[in-house]
Write a structure and sequence with these properties.
Blueprint lengths: L5 H22 L1 H12 L4 H29 L5 H19 L8 H24 L1 H4 L5 H31 L7 H18 L2 H6 L12 H14 L5 H30 L4 H29 L1 H20 L4 H29 L5 H30 L2 H7 L1 H11 L27
Helix pairs in contact: 1-5, 1-7, 1-8, 2-3, 3-5, 3-10, 3-11, 3-15, 4-5, 4-8, 5-15, 7-8, 7-12, 7-14, 11-14, 11-15, 11-17, 12-13, 12-14, 13-14, 13-16, 13-17, 15-16
Length: about 425
């Protein structure tokens, strides 16, 4: 990482720390812990998967409503870091609280999970928006994809430790129950996430901002309403967001519900943990590869490539029967999950007016979060209606097709830039802030 500045490295370290949440809480250990708790309470596999989907939908709805106005307020000097720190703290503390919830209280687990997701997604709104402050347009693909790659690598460290503790507890090598071992994994995640948030707080500054003025909240609502009224002047941005809404829906649903889906297929928890660990390792180099190929062939072409891979994932998932099938599916996901997310972030960051980046990343968040409501609800309702989660996963194909079709109408960043700078100026920063 010698070629990266201190600000770029500090920004990447947050991905290194936060990704432990993504794999241990969102994808691996917590879903299995929750599924076991629900089963002990007599909840069927399809119903518990559906309730997990509903919890995800509730948390994402809350963030979808908060994102745009908080992002607009954060355009003012100094607010971006404050909001980032607050949401990060909420996520870290809520993750630590999982350590103390008994495994037979599945409702409390879901409530705590909602707060964790709010903290995680809320911090990411401002983390993503900081991309315009830590680097320039020419380096955004490289920095964004390297951040995702570091996240995958960094998440494997607490993941390995957590898996080791859980497996040793299962084998009775450690004098711990599997429940206690899982709770230790939650605590490790909280510490890891919190520790690697510190470089971001110390070294990253808000370089693009608006000067503070009286009646900040009232003026922020006014600016947000003005943006909505002038939406035609941001046509390229909102076309991209519409495309993103559909294809990222499928991506997020597959990531957040993969463990629950595998469990419903009868795949053992140990096999799921190993598969998810290998997925993290494989995803890191592919995320960086996406960045290099995007610099050579264009970001849009690589976004299309990711969409095609996910369509294949959905089709294959419909016919999946065995643990070996799940291995194949996981490796397909690993080739593209980091790349499509990282390039979407850098693609959007290169389009937005830098001075108003937070406001626009608030819209990025609302499209992302409302998309994350539709997918889990679709899978949950279909799982309950048919008793088969595979049908819901297969239905996600249409979302990728719609997203890809709309993306064809979005120009590459830098083309037609006149429509990207509506009210709020040229996008140049008005000062240096912290």
């Amino acid at each position: 990482m010698k070629s990266f500045s201190k600000e770029e490295r500090s920004w990447m370290w947050y991905d290194w720390g936060h990704s432990a949440y993504s794999v241990i809480i969102s994808t691996a250990v917590f879903p299995l812990f929750y599924k076991a708790a629900a089963e002990q309470s007599g909840i069927s596999g399809a119903d518990s998967t559906a309730y997990l989907g509903y919890a995800i939908a509730i948390s994402t709805l809350i963030l979808a409503l908060l994102g745009p106005i908080l992002g607009t307020i954060a355009d003012y000097q100094g607010f971006k870091k404050t909001f980032f720190a607050g949401f990060s703290l909420l996520g870290v503390i809520s993750t630590a609280l999982l350590t103390f919830i008994p495994n037979d209280h599945w409702q409390l687990l879901l409530i705590c999970y909602v707060f964790i997701m709010i903290g995680s997604a809320g911090s990411n709104v401002f983390y993503d928006a900081f991309l315009v402050d830590v680097t320039d347009d020419e380096r955004m693909n490289k920095v964004s994809t390297r951040g995702f790659a570091l996240g995958y690598i960094g998440s494997t460290i607490p993941f390995i430790v957590s898996i080791a503790i859980i497996l040793l507890a299962q084998q009775e090598v450690l004098p711990l129950s599997v429940t206690a071992a899982s709770q230790i994994a939650f605590f490790i995640t909280a510490v890891w996430w919190g520790a690697f948030t510190l470089p971001m707080l110390r070294h990253v500054r808000q370089k693009h901002f608006m000067k503070r003025e009286p009646r900040i909240i009232a003026n922020s609502f006014g600016r947000l309403w003005g943006t909505l009224k002038e939406i035609k002047r941001y046509r390229a941005l909102f076309l991209f967001l519409l495309a993103y809404f559909f294809y990222i829906d499928g991506v997020g649903t597959i990531i957040t519900m993969s463990s629950a889906y595998g469990s419903d297929l009868g795949i053992e928890a140990t096999d799921l943990l190993i598969i998810l660990f290998v997925t993290q390792v494989v995803a890191a180099p592919f995320a960086m590869l996406y960045g290099r190929l995007a610099d050579r062939f264009g970001s849009k072409l690589m976004l299309y490539a990711g969409i095609v891979v996910y369509i294949l994932v959905c089709i294959y998932a419909y016919f999946m029967k065995t643990a070996f099938d799940f291995w194949i599916l996981a490796m397909l996901v690993a080739t593209s999950q980091g790349g499509i997310q990282a390039l979407s972030r850098s693609y959007f960051a290169r389009m937005v007016p830098k001075q108003n980046a937070n406001r626009f990343f608030g819209f990025y968040n609302i499209f992302d979060k409302f998309a994350s409501i539709l997918g889990p609800l679709l899978v949950g309702l279909t799982a309950q209606a048919t008793g088969n989660t595979s049908t819901g996963v297969f239905s996600l194909v249409v979302l990728f097709l719609i997203g890809g079709a709309i993306l064809t109408r979005v120009p590459e960043p830098g083309q037609g830039s006149a429509i990207l700078h509506g009210p709020g100026g040229s996008g140049k920063g008005s000062g240096i802030g912290s």
